[in-house]
Amino acid sequence: MAGEGEKYSLDGRPVHLGLGARAEVQPAFTGSMEWYKDYSMRTASDGREGRLVALYSFTEPWTVWEMHPKGDEVVLCTAGRVTLIQEVEEGERAIELDAGEYAINPAGVWHTADTDGATCVFITAGEGTEHKDRVLPPP
User: In terms of pTM, does the model score above 0.85?
Assistant: First the structure.
């Protein structure tokens, strides 16, 4: 089995959780939309049940909104502080997370994040994920 007896860094090599309770180490993460496109092609047979597990560190607010139409996303803050912002019917909802706390971005909800330093684990149902630009106020 690939990855058996080896160790990886989650921030550089995400893992895909697929059908049949399998875990698949992914190629080195580049952060590009091309990486996500290739990931979607590699894992397409798992459909909406597949999950990408990745660790990211951020030092500034996100410049995009994203939305996962086919499943929820768990966001676990492991260091620092991050504010998740979700677009809901009532407007924007802010959820502040400190290390050890998590929140869920529900399927179909556009979300982004503000931080000046945080590390988070994301467990994402990524099939069909969409992105749109976020306009940030001038500094």
Answer: yes
